C-alpha cells in the first residue's frame, strides 16, 4: 500500500492498442476480404485508473491505483507499464485468476472520429468487495471512473456502485466520479441511469461527466434540440443540466465539452462545500467556462481523463475555481498533442 497517497483512482483499467494509419487510408476500413496496410501499433494502458492516475503522477501527485487485471500477458503488460513510472503504482492492482484482462483497439484514422473495439474483461467483475477500508487509508480524495462499462456497477440499479461511494464517504474521503459513453447495444443501455444517479449523487462531492454522456443517461433532449438550431454550447443548456445534477446531490459539477472546453458549476450551499473544502466561500455558487487551448492534434484518446487529472490536481493543491478549470483544459490540451492519453502530459 502506498501510505502517502493523497488521491485514489479506482475503476476501469485496460490495455489500449492504437494502430497508426497512413494519411491516405481508405475510409472503408471494414470491407470484407480486403488487406489494409497500416503502420506500427502503439500500446499503453487505458481506462480511468491508468489515464487519470499516470497523468496525476506526472503532475506531481502521489496516486494510489485500484483496478483489476487478469493473470495473462495483457495483465502483466499493464502492471509492468505502471511500474515503469513508479513501482508503487501497481501495488493495489488486483490480479484475477478467473477473468481475462480488458483491452481496447482504438481505430483512429486521419480525418475521422475514433472508434473503440472494447473487451471489458475483469472490469465486469469489479465490485464493492474489491475496495476495502485499508485501501482507503491516508488518502484525501477518491475518484472512480467508467461505471457504464463495468457490469457490476450498473446491475441491480447500481447497488454496488452506491455501496462503494457510501463506504468511501463514511471513511471521510472527498469523492469524485466520472462516467463513460454507453453503447446502445450493450446491457448498460437497459439500466435506469436516472434511478442510479438519484441514489448515487448524494455521496458524490465532485461529478465530472461529459455533456454528451449525461444527456444520454438522463434521457434529456439531444444537444441540437436543446439549443434550437445548432449544437453550439450555450449557457441555458449547461445551467439546466448542472442545476439538475446539483439538486440530486453533487456539490461540484464539471462538464467536459470536447472542443468547446470545460464548464464548472457549484452548489450555493456553503455547508455542503465546507464538509470537504477549507475555502468553501470561494467555491460556492460559481458558474465558469474555460475554452480549449489551440494545439496540434495528434489523438484525442484519454483527453477527457487528463482534463479531469488537471482539475483534480489543481483542486487538491488549493487553487481557485478559475485556476482549476484552466488547469483542466491545459492538461487536456497537452494530452491530445500525443497519440495516446498521457505521453503528452509534462512532468
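^ Assign residues to that structure.
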Amino acid at each position: 500500500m502506498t501510505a502517502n497517497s493523497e488521491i485514489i483512482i479506482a475503476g476501469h483499467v485496460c490495455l489500449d492498442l492504437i494502430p497508426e494509419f497512413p494519411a491516405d487510408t481508405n475510409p472503408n476500413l471494414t470491407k470484407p476480404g480486403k488487406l489494409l496496410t497500416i503502420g506500427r501499433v502503439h500500446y499503453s494502458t487505458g481506462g480511468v485508473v491508468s489515464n487519470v492516475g499516470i497523468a496525476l503522477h506526472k503532475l506531481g501527485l502521489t496516486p494510489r491505483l485500484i483496478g483489476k487485471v487478469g493473470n495473462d500477458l495483457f495483465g502483466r503488460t499493464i502492471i509492468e507499464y505502471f511500474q515503469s513510472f513508479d513501482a508503487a503504482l501497481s501495488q493495489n492492482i488486483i490480479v484475477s485468476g478467473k477473468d481475462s484482462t480488458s483491452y481496447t483497439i482504438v481505430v483512429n484514422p486521419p480525418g475521422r472520429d475514433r472508434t473503440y473495439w472494447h473487451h471489458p474483461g475483469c472490469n465486469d467483475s469489479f465490485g464493492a468487495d474489491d475496495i476495502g477500508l485499508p485501501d482507503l487509508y491516508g488518502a484525501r480524495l477518491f475518484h472512480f471512473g467508467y461505471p457504464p462499462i463495468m457490469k457490476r456497477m450498473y446491475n441491480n440499479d447500481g447497488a454496488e456502485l452506491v455501496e462503494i461511494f457510501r463506504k468511501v464517504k463514511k471513511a471521510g474521503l472527498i469523492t469524485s466520479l466520472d462516467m463513460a459513453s454507453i453503447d446502445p447495444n450493450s446491457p448498460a443501455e437497459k439500466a435506469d441511469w436516472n434511478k442510479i444517479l438519484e441514489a448515487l449523487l448524494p455521496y458524490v462531492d465532485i461529478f465530472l461527466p461529459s455533456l454528451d454522456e449525461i444527456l444520454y443517461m438522463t434521457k434529456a433532449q439531444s444537444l441540437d434540440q436543446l439549443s434550437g438550431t445548432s449544437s453550439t454550447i450555450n449557457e441555458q443548456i449547461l445551467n439546466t443540466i448542472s442545476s439538475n445534477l446539483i439538486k440530486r446531490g453533487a456539490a461540484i459539477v464539471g462538464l467536459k465539452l470536447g472542443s468547446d472546453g470545460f464548464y464548472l458549476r457549484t452548489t450555493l450551499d456553503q455547508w455542503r462545500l465546507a464538509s470537504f473544502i477549507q475555502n468553501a466561500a470561494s467555491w460556492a455558487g460559481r458558474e465558469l467556462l474555460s475554452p480549449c487551448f489551440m494545439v496540434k492534434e495528434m489523438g484525442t484518446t484519454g483527453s477527457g481523463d487528463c482534463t479531469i487529472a488537471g482539475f483534480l490536481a489543481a483542486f487538491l493543491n488549493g487553487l481557485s475555481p478559475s485556476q482549476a478549470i484552466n488547469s483542466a483544459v491545459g492538461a487536456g490540451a497537452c494530452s491530445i498533442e500525443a497519440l495516446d492519453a498521457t505521453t503528452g502530459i509534462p512532468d
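Residues 7-27+40-335 form a domain with the UDP-N-acetylmuramoyl-L-alanine:D-glutamate ligase fold (CATH 3.40.1190.20).
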